[in-house]
Amino acid sequence: MEPVRVGICGLGTVGSGTFNVLTRNADEIARRAGRPIVIEQVGARRDNAECDLTDIHVTRDIFEVARNPDIDVLVELIGGYDVARELVLEAIRHGKHVVTANKALIAVHGNELFRAAAEQGVIVAFEAAVAGGIPVIKSLREGLGANRIQWLAGIINGTGNYILTHMRDEGRAFDDVLAEAQSLGYAESDPTFDVEGIDAAHKLTILASIAFGVPLQFERAYTEGISRITAEDVEQADQLGYIIKHLGISRRTDEGVELRVHPTLIPKERLLANVHGVKNAIEVMGDAVGPTLYYGAGAGAEPTASAVVADLLDVARDIATHHDYRTPYLAFSGIDHDDQHPPILPMESIVTAYYLRLLAVDRPGVLARVATILAEQGVSIEALTQKEATEGELVPIIILTHRTREANMNEAIRQLESLADVAGSVTRIRVEDLDDA
Ligand SMILES: NC(=O)c1ccc[n+]([C@@H]2O[C@H](COP(=O)([O-])OP(=O)(O)OC[C@H]3O[C@@H](n4cnc5c(N)ncnc54)[C@H](O)[C@@H]3O)[C@@H](O)[C@H]2O)c1
Ligand SMILES: N[C@@H](CCO)C(=O)O
Ligand code: NA
Q1: Which CATH architecture does the domain made up of 4-133+302-325 adopt?
Q2: What was the ipTM of the complex prediction?
Q3: Within this chain, domains 4-133+302-325 and 136-297 share the same CATH topology
Q4: In the CATH hierarchy, which fold is given to the domain comprising 136-297?
Q5: Is residue 264 marked as binding?
Q6: Is the pTM of this model over 0.95?
Q7: Which of 203, 245, 268, 279 is catalytic?
């Protein structure tokens, strides 16, 4: 059969990994695809010493790749929102299929890109965009197609998990571990995307669409990062039998779909609590299959390339299939025209348990006043511990609550912070049991 001709745009961490995996495993890949997958052109600002570009047609103008009539598939690995959007739209206009690792692009511009691609009858594949090498998109979209998905929860940012792991195990400083993750090629070009939860929210947005059949709605995701996690909270969580992980959680309720990224206390014995370093894992609960777990490298050159090349294999197999008979981009047919899908819920309406840490003046009646405020908001306490005074007259109070509405907790925290007995702000970290795991 005719080869599939690929143009790779961007020759950084993932671009070089993709180039090398495609080249090294060319024979194996051709046997799987039933035809060779060949690199016809590379668009890059500069050569990359990791790649042997002898005999490769290299251009400094990536848009040349998008317009090259000898290219069947453009692989977008430049990252970012704007130029990547222009590049992908240009490739689609020229009838090319697209493979991308760019979650920012898909989460923010995906609805527009899929519309354009559907009009041209071309594939847009993005397995590498979520959890790097873990085939979670394919699993959700195809392997779990029989299920009504109930919830999914995952560690979906490798850099953040790498930082939390090394801070906890080695007592190292945040900035020091972040610099290491950057040097290993895990971090986004703007690492605040990793540490403030934006990258995880991009990925969660994509997972939720595929799990629940809702259009991509990144702007509705609740996003909180790991930059305010303190050693004190890590220690308190440990004593209570929990570990703090940065999770993306999406859950179907009777009212709609939760879409939230935040640090979370999870019981130490859960599988997700034992996912460390750059590894990612996503737990998915389906009504028929029950809990399933997907684990592996969430970032890095060749793990991510593994997903990019798997998408190229899918393109090679589906290229001759009519668009109407291909797997839909977001797993459900007609998400765009279907207004039957559930709404994304505002954060105030989610229901979860909470860990609270506050500093109070050590005088009679303080605990009663704290308990009264919580009771008036309908928040019931599972455990309350008053620690030894550490900061002058102030004593830390640690509270674990039962499940309650976020709106009630917001009001309780507002009232607690206005008490004369309470110093500074109240730390709040959500707690998930991940039942049924
Ligand atoms: N690094 C990872 O582990 C990882 C994992 C999954 C997904 N991703 C995604 O993959 C994409 C690429 O990430 P990366 O880590 O390889 O980044 P990178 O910075 O290492 O590589 C990007 C490359 O694109 C080039 N580039 C950017 N704009 C260009 C332009 N206009 N013309 C030509 N070249 C241009 C840059 O020079 C750079 O070499 C991003 O969307 C990222 O979110 C990365
Ligand atoms: N910066 C991302 C890359 C993988 O998407 C991470 O650390 O998870
Ligand atoms: Na993936």
Answers
A1: 3-Layer(aba) Sandwich (3.40)
A2: 0.99
A3: no
A4: Dihydrodipicolinate Reductase; domain 2 (3.30.360)
A5: no
A6: yes
A7: 203
